[in-house]
């Protein structure tokens, strides 16, 4: 018998990673933050000063990087970069890196390797549609753009440098790029359960998800 995957997709700031982490803890599954994998590659590109139009160099360096997600932390070439990948410069660049099909293949491979010998809860944009199309259960989380912007603003490590309005604009732009790219765009899988998290607490959302998981299991 194979291992189970639970897919959680949705736009930026919908609360995916927080609830995915909590859900994984409640049911004893391993959490994978697929966005963190794209963010780590983006960090490498920025660190090396590579032009985002230099696709070949980006692919070369991504292939030659050691990227791992374990114990809820993201590692790039052996260093824990979990905080670094939350800088706002990554938010505004990552969608361009995530458009590149070869980069997506690298990230898909990492996720499938982690899930090859364990049960996983994975959050992202293409998990239910592309990475784990046979996932045991699929969720699509959303929320109003105002609430999503506020959540992301409150998460910022360099808050003083940005306004809420600016973050809202960035989110709208990032969602647009993610939903309109050719390679596995942000899309709700046909068999995904839609949850609107606007005005709901984290606990409420996790309870709702647990209900579906136990109904199914
Ligand atoms: O979820 P998070 O905001 O960390 O994702 C960062 C970016 O990584 C997204 O805006 C998107 O461009 C990309 N991404 C993706 N597919 C995923 C996860 C993230 O394209 N499965």
From TrEMBL:
Keywords: ATP-binding, Cytoplasm, Kinase, Nucleotide-binding, Transferase. The keyword Electron transport does not apply. GO terms for molecular function: ATP binding; CMP kinase activity; dCMP kinase activity. GO terms for cellular component: cytosol. SUPFAM superfamilies: P-loop containing nucleoside triphosphate hydrolases (SSF52540). Its EC number is 2.7.4.25. ATP binds at residues 10-18. It comes from the Bacteria. It is an enzyme of class 2 (transferase). GO terms for biological process: nucleobase-containing small molecule interconversion; pyrimidine nucleotide metabolic process. Pfam families: Cytidylate_kin (PF02224). Belongs to the cytidylate kinase family. Type 1 subfamily. NCBIfam families: cmk (TIGR00017). This is Cytidylate kinase.
